[in-house]
Amino acid sequence: MDPILYQILQFISYLFMIYQFMVIGYILMSWIPSAQDSSVGRLLAKAVDPYLGFFRKFIPPIGMIDFSPIIALLLLDFIRRGVFIVVENIYNLFS
Fold it and tell me: Which regions span the lipid bilayer (predicted)?
Protein backbone atom coordinates (compact mmCIF):
# COMPACT_ATOMS: atom_id res chain seq x y z
CA MET A 1 0.00 0.00 0.00
CA ASP A 2 1.20 3.47 -0.84
CA PRO A 3 2.40 5.37 2.26
CA ILE A 4 0.30 8.43 1.46
CA LEU A 5 -2.87 6.34 1.11
CA TYR A 6 -2.00 4.54 4.33
CA GLN A 7 -1.68 7.85 6.19
CA ILE A 8 -4.98 9.11 4.81
CA LEU A 9 -6.78 5.93 5.84
CA GLN A 10 -5.10 6.01 9.25
CA PHE A 11 -6.30 9.58 9.81
CA ILE A 12 -9.86 8.66 8.80
CA SER A 13 -9.70 5.65 11.09
CA TYR A 14 -8.64 7.86 14.02
CA LEU A 15 -11.54 10.23 13.38
CA PHE A 16 -14.04 7.38 13.41
CA MET A 17 -12.42 5.87 16.51
CA ILE A 18 -12.67 9.20 18.35
CA TYR A 19 -16.36 9.47 17.47
CA GLN A 20 -16.97 5.88 18.57
CA PHE A 21 -15.33 6.64 21.91
CA MET A 22 -17.51 9.73 22.19
CA VAL A 23 -20.64 7.61 21.64
CA ILE A 24 -19.48 5.04 24.18
CA GLY A 25 -18.61 7.78 26.67
CA TYR A 26 -22.03 9.34 26.21
CA ILE A 27 -23.69 5.98 26.78
CA LEU A 28 -21.68 5.38 29.95
CA MET A 29 -22.45 8.89 31.19
CA SER A 30 -26.16 8.12 30.89
CA TRP A 31 -25.76 5.64 33.75
CA ILE A 32 -24.62 8.44 36.09
CA PRO A 33 -27.41 11.01 36.43
CA SER A 34 -25.31 14.08 37.17
CA ALA A 35 -22.63 13.30 34.55
CA GLN A 36 -24.73 14.45 31.61
CA ASP A 37 -25.26 17.84 33.25
CA SER A 38 -21.52 18.53 33.32
CA SER A 39 -19.77 20.55 30.63
CA VAL A 40 -18.29 17.36 29.12
CA GLY A 41 -21.72 15.73 29.13
CA ARG A 42 -23.28 18.69 27.34
CA LEU A 43 -20.45 18.72 24.77
CA LEU A 44 -20.88 15.00 24.11
CA ALA A 45 -24.64 15.45 23.87
CA LYS A 46 -24.23 18.10 21.17
CA ALA A 47 -21.92 15.83 19.17
CA VAL A 48 -23.65 12.49 19.68
CA ASP A 49 -27.38 13.16 20.17
CA PRO A 50 -28.14 13.95 16.52
CA TYR A 51 -26.59 10.65 15.42
CA LEU A 52 -28.17 8.55 18.17
CA GLY A 53 -31.49 10.39 17.88
CA PHE A 54 -31.89 9.10 14.34
CA PHE A 55 -31.73 5.51 15.59
CA ARG A 56 -33.92 6.16 18.63
CA LYS A 57 -36.75 7.19 16.29
CA PHE A 58 -36.80 3.75 14.68
CA ILE A 59 -35.57 1.41 17.44
CA PRO A 60 -37.64 1.70 20.61
CA PRO A 61 -36.14 0.60 23.93
CA ILE A 62 -37.06 -2.87 25.12
CA GLY A 63 -37.89 -2.54 28.78
CA MET A 64 -35.10 -0.51 30.35
CA ILE A 65 -32.55 -1.37 27.64
CA ASP A 66 -31.93 0.89 24.66
CA PHE A 67 -30.39 -1.06 21.78
CA SER A 68 -30.15 1.91 19.42
CA PRO A 69 -26.55 2.82 20.45
CA ILE A 70 -25.39 -0.71 19.59
CA ILE A 71 -26.95 -0.48 16.14
CA ALA A 72 -25.53 3.04 15.75
CA LEU A 73 -22.00 1.84 16.57
CA LEU A 74 -22.31 -1.08 14.14
CA LEU A 75 -23.50 1.22 11.38
CA LEU A 76 -20.68 3.64 12.14
CA ASP A 77 -18.20 0.84 11.51
CA PHE A 78 -19.90 0.00 8.19
CA ILE A 79 -19.73 3.67 7.22
CA ARG A 80 -16.02 3.72 8.07
CA ARG A 81 -15.42 0.72 5.83
CA GLY A 82 -17.38 2.34 3.03
CA VAL A 83 -15.39 5.56 3.36
CA PHE A 84 -12.18 3.50 3.14
CA ILE A 85 -13.33 1.92 -0.11
CA VAL A 86 -14.33 5.28 -1.60
CA VAL A 87 -11.05 6.94 -0.57
CA GLU A 88 -8.99 4.04 -1.94
CA ASN A 89 -10.84 4.17 -5.26
CA ILE A 90 -10.47 7.95 -5.55
CA TYR A 91 -6.78 7.71 -4.67
CA ASN A 92 -6.20 4.94 -7.23
CA LEU A 93 -8.09 6.92 -9.85
CA PHE A 94 -5.74 9.89 -9.54
CA SER A 95 -2.47 8.04 -8.96
Answer: 12-32, 58-76
pTM score, two decimals?
Answer: 0.88
d(CA 39, CA 61): 27
**Residues 3-23: tens digit of each pLDDT:** 999 999 999 999 999 999 999
pLDDT in tens, 24-71: 999 999 888 888 889 999 999 999 999 999 999 999 888 888 889 999
44: left (phi over 0), alpha (psi -120 to 50) or beta: alpha
Cβ(22)–Cβ(82) below 8 Å: no
What contacts 86, CB < 8 A, 6 or more positions away?
none
CB 41 within 8 A of CB 29: yes
